Amino acid sequence: MEPVTATVFIARPREEIAEYLSDVANHPEFKDHFLVDWHLTREDSVGRGAGVRFREKLPLNRFGWGDYTLVEVTPFRVVERGRSGKFNRNRTMGTWTLAEAPGGMTRVEYRYESEGNMLSDRMRESRGWWKRKTAKSLRRLQSILEENRDRGGRVTVAGR
């Protein structure tokens, strides 16, 4: 699937946003409208190596389980790498890029890529669905960080 990109401007310092994103237990707060049944893959949910497992609510998807692990965490970038689909054979990557913007704002860009190995996997991918859900998750992230509202639950090792 071609990469899906969404951008939002958040009135918070870049370091604060990077710290929030580097804790994968926070991710269900803004992604739980399309990713459900979250579980941590290790006890420590912060920093490089922290990971989660979840189920995608993609319509007509029999093999909706996926996971990702943080592989790079800096004040400028947070990178997630994972797998999804049948037998976890599809590689995925999410990249959060944080840049300072005028007026004390931070430009937050999220880029999601998925690489289906087989024709059936590539046919299952719905770029439009991912684009809509990604854009909504960034709007929710903005409202959480700026106004402290729309907060969902934090994920734990054994689920919620």
Describe this structure in words.
This protein has 160 residues and is α+β, with helices and mostly antiparallel strands. It has a single domain, classed as 2-Layer Sandwich (Alpha-D-Glucose-1,6-Bisphosphate, Chain A, domain 4). Helices cover 24% and strands 37% of the residues. It has 4 helices and 7 strands. The chain has a 7-stranded antiparallel sheet, covered by helices on one side. A hairpin with an 8-residue loop joins β3 and β4. The radius of gyration is 15 Å and the shape is globular. The relative contact order is 0.25. It comes from Conexibacter woesei (strain DSM 14684 / CCUG 47730 / CIP 108061 / JCM 11494 / NBRC 100937 / ID131577). This is Polyketide cyclase/dehydrase. InterPro entries: Polyketide_cyclase/dehydratase (IPR019587), START-like_dom_sf (IPR023393).
Question: Quick summary of this structure?
Answer:
With 160 residues, the protein is of the alpha+beta class. The protein is built from 4 helices and 7 strands.
Present the secondary structure layout.
Layout: E1 4-10, H1 14-21, H2 28-31, E2 35-40, E3 51-56, E4 65-73, E5 77-84, E6 90-101, E7 105-115, H3 119-124, H4 127-147
Antiparallel strand pairs: 1-7, 2-3, 3-4, 4-5, 5-6, 6-7
